[in-house]
Amino acid sequence: MAEEKGKMTVAEAGKKGGTTTSKKYGPEFYSEIGHKGGQTVKRLIAEGKKSANK
Fold first, then answer.
1. Sequence-distant (≥ 6) Cβ neighbours of residue 54 within 8 angstroms
2. pTM above 0.70?
3. 40-53 per-position pLDDT tens digit
4. What confidence tens digit (pLDDT) does each residue in 8-51 have?
């Protein structure tokens, strides 16, 4: 079977998207979204503990 030109793997597409995002927004973007995610996890854990104690 012949290869089709222009096809890329999922891994290649992810790497390309990550590189583009990094160039566009910079490291501060990743720091900010990481902090937001951490705060969400912290809140969900607290809610889970609160409902488990009822």
1. none
2. no
3. 999 999 999 999 88
4. 999 999 999 999 999 999 999 999 999 999 999 999 999 999 99
Evaluate the CA torsion angle 9, 15, 18, 23 in order and state its sign. negative
Cα dihedral 21, 24, 28, 30, rounded to 10, equals -10
User: What is the spatial distance between Cα 49 and Cα 53, in angstroms, rounded to a whole number?
Assistant: 6
16: Cβ contacts below 8 Å, ≥ 6 apart: 8
CA separation for the pair 42, 21 (Å, rounded): 26
**Structural contact between residues 8 and 16, judged by C-beta atoms closer than 8 angstroms:** yes
